[in-house]
Design a protein that fits this description.
It comes from Erythrobacter rubeus. With 279 residues, the protein is mostly beta strands. It is 13% helix and 36% strand. It has two domains: 39 residues, no CATH class; 218 residues, no CATH class. It is built from four helices and 19 strands. A seven-stranded antiparallel beta sheet has the order 3-4-15-14-16-12-13, with helices on one face.
Amino acid sequence: MKPSLTFILAAMVLSACTEQPEGDPILRAELGEDGAAQEIVPVPEPGFDTLEPEAEPVSACRLTSFEQVSLTHCIADPAEHRITTALAPSSGDDAGRFAGFARDTETDTVEFAMNGGMYGDDLKAIGYFVQDSDRLSELNRADGEGNFHMKPNGVFFGSDGTWRVLDSDTFFRTVGDRPQFGTQSGPMLVVEGELHPDFQENGPSRAIRNGVGVDAAGKAHFVISEEPISFGQFARFFRDRLETPNALYLDGNISSLWNPATGRMDSGRVGPLLVVEKK
């Protein structure tokens, strides 16, 4: 027996006066031409937001720790990224700063960037430096003071998605073709699976440091410490955790990272830059 129209309307009025459970949609009865209730249709409450929350930007860099020291570890994958070199601006209010470099760069294309080697007063590299296949500075094999001259030093370089780290003597002997990018720094952190011979296990020299290594799969690992770290600890992170057979120290104290995905832009004074771009 079908309910009467009067009964249905009375039930609807009673339902409208009853408070709906919090978070449940309001229910509305649709009446057919013969007066019978045909369907219960859920109606979203006014102002109910049905949009999915916006996803957080994905970053190639993550915070980690090693031997109780905090580090930021960024990965460049040749399947997803390209690596180029650049120079920070040498004049203006933001000379030697990522802020100055970013103003003239397509930010959307940058995955992350780090300072990429040691420089002189003019902010130019003191060692081998290639930008867009143009050699701006020759390989420096001279002896001298400071970290750069702690032999063996080395070169990080690459072309067409093949990236390598080699000590400078091996680079000089075996690399004949000019790469698309390259930067020389020193000392080497890891050489053919062994730590630099002059490193102590955990020596007294502590600084904010950054470096780069390439693993067996061809991925480049960029690391910057978030607190002072010794050479020995830093080198062991590349050898033991990242398993990079060769790794190169890039610099210390002025070490800086620009990571657009997280909004990080360090303000240290930089010169040569390594820029990881999205393909």
